[in-house]
Amino acid sequence: MGRDVPARVFTREDRRRYRQKMHRSLDAFAQMLREERFESERPLVGLEIELSLVDGDTEPAMRGAEVLEAIADPAWSSELGRFNLEINLPPRQLTTGGPGAWEQDVRDALNHAEERAAAIGAHLITVGILPTLRQSDVGEEALVDHPRYRLLNEQIFQARGEDLRISIDGIDRLRCYADTITPEAACTSTQFHLQVSPDRFAAYWNAAQLIAGVQVALAANSPYLFGRELWRETRIPLFEQATDTRAVELKAQGVRPRVWFGERWITSVFDLFEENVRYFPALLPLTDPEDPQEALEGGDIPELPELTLHNGTIYRWNRPVYAVVHGTPHLRIENRVLPSGPTMADTSANGAFYYGLVRALAEEERPVWTRMSFSAAEDNLHAAARHGLDARLYWPGVGEVPAPELVLRRLLPLAHAGLERSGLDEAWREPLLGIIEQRCVAHRNGALWQAETVRRIEETSHRDRHEALRRMTAQYMEYMHLNAPVHTWPVD
Asked: Model pTM?
């Protein structure tokens, strides 16, 4: 969905032509897989971070375009909401310069952006959902004025035929309606990219799906939405509902949602792209002049623009990505389950845990997913999103156990082993995975710190909820800039 798209009205002929082109592209993709045309010698990793913008009072700042202009760096781009930005870090090998170098690169970029934003009265915050966001902040006027987002908004509501209903039962209860997709802009995430060879893709994707719940339990950082305390990672149900193209009747018929965990373990990356074409109608049926079969016959590599654009409108929590860089195609997994923040120290630790654990699990002789149902992995994700570190998660051989216990006893040693195989020695591994270990021991992540701090402010200062959220957010930003891991943050 990073592509620019023109503003237009789609015809029946557009949709027919697009469907035909999608099947032709799928055939070309299958041929490329058979002929082993993909880059796999130097697998790279990548990182995207979405952020929110606030003013001096920690209220949402609808100034994304101005801040982007002030930053003046092509690594930064707009997002769905006018109070969002995104930074896309250049891909690298996991061991290049060590994890500390990657973290420092990101911190330097964020500090530079914060300095430029502050000069015009805005500030950056890395948090899953901006705590001070009100429902009135996510109306149509908050949508970025860009044809891509306007067109996507129109197509989703055309498919639905009615307003979006957001319904979340947590510690508090939320019921509201929206006539745009802008509530999705409340969700800001951290996205880890992992390049994988075609023959290993299925194992790595299955492993990433397997640990999605564990990741969310550890890193939950979105307890508040529109002033209500809901799930520990409210971003998960909000995103699922805010981009849902299905009316109630279509849900009852079993039509698949566009924010999708999936429904089965896979045997090939082809399974995922085939599901995209089989199950999901096109939201943006834009065809490109490229003929993928002619490109292959001529010795070229097709870009497959229809297949990739369609893939960008299906929001899997672990999304397959096909891309061509310098004339060479590659495949990667885009891990999308984690919220933004709280600090780069936490983000680096989350990345180390993910990259190490997914490698260890993917390379096991008897994979864990052969002993676990796919639905159990999905149940883990939603249990973790609702309860965070208090979630009980299922794992083969141990049954249902508290998330911290599962991590400490079973998964951290695997993450260490996976990073060691990737070339990261103990001096690099220990500080990063030590943060994960201490988060479990202290039983503290971003969501718990936010909730405990708000309760403390409400009890001691007798402030209303929004003022407590505003004060908590101000404290959060102070600690965020110190870059101390969230498990060390005091509750003042």
From this structure: 0.95
SS (HEC) of the chain: CCCCCCCCCCCHHHHHHHHHHHHHHHHHHHHHHHCCCCCCCCCCEEEEEEEEEECCCCCECCCHHHHHHHHCCCCEEECCECCEEEEEEEEECCCCCHHHHHHHHHHHHHHHHHHHHHCCCCEEECCCCCCCCCHHHHCHHHECCCHHHHHHHHHHHHHHCCCEEEEEECCCEEEEEECCCHHHHHCCEEEEEEECCHHHHHHHHHHHHHCHHHHHHHHCCECEECCEECCCECHHHHHHHHCCCCCHHHHHCCCCCCEECCCCCCCCHHHHHHHHHHHCCCCCCCCCCCCHHHHHHCCCCCCCHHHHHHHCCCEECEEEEEEEECCEEEEEEEEEEEECCCCHHHHHHHHHHHHHHHHHHHCCCCCHHHHCCHHHHHHHHHHHHHHHHHCEEEECCCEEEEHHHHHHHHHHHHHHHHHHHCCCCHHHHHHHHHHHHHHHHHCCCHHHHHHHHHHHHHHHHCCCHHHHHHHHHHHHHHHHHHCCCHHHCCCC
pLDDT given for residue 99 in this prediction = 63
Residue range 336-343: mean pLDDT, rounded: 98
Closest CA to 334 of 217, 244, 212: 212
Using an 8 Å Cβ cutoff, are 185 and 80 in contact? Answer: yes
CA 448 – CA 434 distance, rounded (Å): 19
- Nearest CA-CA partner of 219 in 388, 66, 335: 388
Q: Label the pairing between strands 45-54 and 123-125.
A: antiparallel
**Given this model, what pLDDT does residue 1 score?**
45
**Token code pair at residue 160:** 């639905």
> 165 or 40: whose pLDDT is higher?
165
Q: What's the rounded mean pLDDT across residues 193-198?
A: 95
> 166, 177, 200: which is closest to 40 by C-alpha?
200
Furthest-apart CA atoms within the chain: distance in Å: 72
Q: Is the pLDDT of residue 7 over 60?
A: no
Range name among 69-73, 198-202, 286-290, 382-386 with the lowest pLDDT average: 286-290
* The two structure tokens encoding residue 469: 């959220």
Nearest to 184 by CA among 129, 132, 124, 233: 129
Encode pLDDT of 389-402 as tens digits: 999 999 999 999 99
Say what the alpha-carbon torsion angle 329, 335, 336, 338 is, to the nearest 10 degrees: -150
Whether pLDDT at 232 is above 90: yes
